[in-house]
Amino acid sequence: MLFGKRKSKDNSRPETESAGAAVAGAVEEAAAEGLSYGGGITVKEANLHYGDFHALKNISIDIPEHHITAFIGPSGCGKSTFLKCFNRMNDLVPGCKVEGEFTIGNVNIYGSIDVNELRKNVGMVFQKPNPFPMSVYDNIAYGPRTFGIKKRSVLDEIVERSLKQAAMWDELKDRLNKSALGLSGGQQQRLCIARALAVDPKIILMDEPTSALDPISTGKIEDLCLELKNDVTVVIVTHNMQQAARISDKTAFFLLGDLIEYGDTSQIFERPKDKKTEEYITGRFG
User: Which of 16-20, 155-159, 230-234 has the lowest mean pLDDT?
Assistant: First the structure.
């Protein structure tokens, strides 16, 4: 039986056109001519090796835009490794070799591209909150400043917009100049999401973003994901199958570097086609 789905909220938020236009303008100048990032991800025959270890094996998948896609599976199955391929975080791992085709929009992300531009369009939220040791305001403004936005009024609009998108404006509007390190763990994680949103990404990757949080903070992150998918594509790695069932539209089950099964979340949890998927979901291993 499918665990209870968490319903998305239809909360409209004011947009700040001038701030959005400024970010878009800075990004347009930095983007390679003719390349256009989108919110969908297509992967064909992906393999990844750490030296002699074959970590990901012939994976092909289409991840639709404006959906939440969950990666599930036991520890060490390759789901976080695969997630990090989407913004080339694995480039930082010595001895890592990636093969196959990874396309976002019309961009071959393992071609000759600006990796900083890729990571602007494909934001990342890690398992442990990692706010910068600076003010709340400066955390959010960091990315836009990197892309050349210096005008204070525009940065003010971006900070407000991003915190509203992360459902944190009312909590933090009077604490913008306070250190982000003074926030609770749940607030820090939502601040990191707001920081990623400040540069107007197409995709947000989340690597077990609630594993270190209490149930109330976890619920706030889940609600936030459901609202964000109206604007961005969300791909989340989670060990919590109930979480995957509550918030995701699509679910992919990984085992020992293989993609065992991928489909609509309701189908994966209620009518799995592969016996290994059924055994994992019913708790026989993992």
Answer: 16-20
pTM, two decimals, is 0.87
Q: Is 58 left (phi over 0), alpha (psi -120 to 50) or beta?
A: left
**Helix orientation angle between 185-197 and 136-146, rounded to the nearest 10 degrees:** 20
147 Cβ contact list (under 8 Å, min separation 6) = 23, 26, 27, 30, 120, 199
CATH of the domain at 260: 3.40.50.300
Give 135-166 pLDDT, tens digit per residue.
999 999 999 999 899 999 999 999 999 999 99
- For residue 112, give the 3-state DSSP assignment: coil
**Residue 9 domain-assigned (yes or no):** no
Bridge partners (DSSP) listed for residue 123: 204
The verdict on residue 3 lying in a domain is no
286 falls within a domain = no
**Count of alpha carbons within 13 Å of 279, Cβ hemisphere only?**
10
Q: Where on the phi/psi map is residue 243: left (φ > 0), alpha (ψ -120 to 50), or beta? A: alpha
Q: Range of 26's domain?
A: 17-281
Residues paired with 61 in a beta bridge: 43
Please, what is the end-to-end C-alpha distance for the chain in angstroms?
A: 19
Number of domains in the chain: 1
* pLDDT (tens digit per residue) in 67-105: 999 999 999 999 999 999 999 999 989 999 999 999 999
The reply to whether 216 falls in a domain is: yes
